[in-house]
Amino acid sequence: MLVRYRKDYEKIAMGLLSLLPELHNYDRFTEELHNAVTRHFPIYLWKDEEDNHFIAVVILEEGESYVLLRQISFTPSERSGRNVYALLDAIKEQYPQKRLMGTLVTQPLITVWEKNHE
User: Fold this and answer.
1) Pairing between strand 66-74 and 99-102?
2) DSSP strand E in 1-118: where?
3) pTM of model > 0.70
């Protein structure tokens, strides 16, 4: 389930972002979250519906005709294709009129997801 970020989820979001190899440094993942909040990028947490725990975070950037997946991070035990695809499906449902795009890091994931939806 896609849940919109709010301030009381800050520690959860930072913990999930810290799992990304490029954001292992405390200053780096706190800066990433702070930049997203101050630039008003949509941030969502993904909640596992079976055990009601947050298992992922995404940072998006919304343009007129697209939604850019800037960051995506899952807990190590939840990085299955099923969870990733379900999260991307939910993002697409949230922004049905916009094309889902990725960065150099996230685009391969989106490409595989799109191929599975053809």
Assistant:
1) parallel
2) 2-4, 43-47, 54-62, 66-74, 99-102
3) yes
